[in-house]
Amino acid sequence: MKADIRKLAVWVEETHKEMGREITPATRKAVAVAVIANPFAGRYVEDLTDLMDIGAELGGLLGERCVKALGIEPQQAESYGKAAMVGENGELEHAAAILHPKLGAPLRAAVEKGAALVPSSKKMGGPGQDLDVPLGHKDAAYVRSHFDGVEVRMNDAPRANEIMVAVAVTDSGRPLPRVGGLTASEAEGKDGLR
């Protein structure tokens, strides 16, 4: 593995009650995070292929850990998202190199299909700073009930020469969705939109 991983973390957030109403079954979001060394920290490098390859490794690893944490089969995953935070000696392009060219295909394999674009965010930050991972339906971007996000934070990451990479997977949409639009059961998943 090209990624020099210092730390891995996985957790599941379940919502059982919202606005005094029971959520049955509970809505669930799994997040898997890798804290890795940034091989290009502190210097400009034109060719970011190494970070792109690391993204491919992490897409599969983190996606599979999310699915396992939820205790579901890959096809039962409903939404996904990705995010990265570079430490102060990195640049936003390092996060983009991990997230965009190659992370998506292994993540899609981990959740079976994934016709829609994987929502993403990237930022610079330091230890203990929040990283928001946007979420969207994995097969149909227009499913409004799955427009969501999950926040992650690690007290000691990312350090100046690190990158914190997060992948989130859900087995449901938001609790009590009621803003209309295409529903998950109506989604065809052919064009990534509907």
From TrEMBL:
Residues 175-194 are annotated as: Disordered. Pfam families: AA_synth. Signal peptide: none annotated. Gene3D superfamilies: BB2672. It comes from the Bacteria. This is Amino acid synthesis family protein. It comes from Albidovulum sediminicola.
